[in-house]
Write a structure and sequence with these properties.
Four Helix Bundle (Hemerythrin (Met), subunit A); 221 residues; two-stranded antiparallel ribbon; mainly alpha
Length: 221
């Protein structure tokens, strides 16, 4: 399944690791007959814990930020905390809509499961890596979509809570529905891995918020 707007993420993820750096693919966990058509408990717990942790870290990074700090830009071409937070929220919403509105409505293709086995390890390691920096595509750059900080955070939390609830409750087989990512080192990803990707993306840009707060001219209050 080829999703045209996934080109949005190619810029962020353009640098692929060499084969020598790749981690060995872990063996696929054994599952019971009941688990074979849905997520295992370990898969549910891992994704839910990761989404909850990256949500808490993002919200903690914004706690106590004043209006001056919220809008501070270290340079004209640098994002403020407000702009970075908007990028997180916009991307969160987009990926959740991709998973729930397209990937899970596509035909199941369990024969592809081996192709993506263990790819979540790469996602969780490489997406948050701030040593790979690039300009965000136009479609996900901040535009002031939300008038207030409260509205932005409500939108983010709504998407994230829907993802967590879905991961907790769904009986669908997220590991057998796929979409292509344009980054050459990711390519095919299953729906579960796309939700892991959302957590990793939030983690990446939460680190960017902390970088803004560490700027020498960042307002004291």
């Amino acid at each position: 399944m080829k999703i045209t707007f996934l080109i949005l993420f190619a810029v962020i993820l353009s640098a692929a690791p060499s084969r020598g750096q790749s981690s060995p693919t872990p063996p696929e966990p054994k599952t019971s007959a009941a688990e074979s058509s849905t997520l295992t408990k370990a898969e549910r717990d891992r994704a839910v814990d990761y989404l909850k942790q990256t949500q808490m870290d993002f919200l903690a990074a914004l706690e106590g930020v004043s209006e001056a700090q919220w809008k501070f830009k270290a340079a004209p071409d640098k994002w403020s905390i407000a702009e970075t937070a908007e990028h997180i929220a916009v991307t969160e919403e987009m990926i959740w809509q991709l998973v729930s509105g397209k990937i899970m409505k596509s035909p199941a293709a369990p024969e592809k499961r081996a192709e993506v086995q263990g790819k979540e390890e790469m996602i969780m390691k490489m997406i948050p890596d701030r040593s790979r920096k690039a300009q965000a595509p136009e479609e996900v750059r901040p535009t002031g979509k939300w008038t207030t900080r409260a509205e932005l955070l409500k939108a983010f939390n709504t998407s994230r809570e829907q993802e967590i609830t879905y991961l907790t409750e769904t009986k669908e087989d997220l590991r057998s529905h796929f979409a292509e990512h344009p980054a050459p080192f990711l390519k095919t990803m299953d729906a579960w891995q796309w939700l892991i990707f959302n957590g990793a993306h939030a983690k990446r840009h939460t680190a960017q918020i902390l970088e803004v707060k560490a700027e020498p001219n960042f307002p004291k209050s």
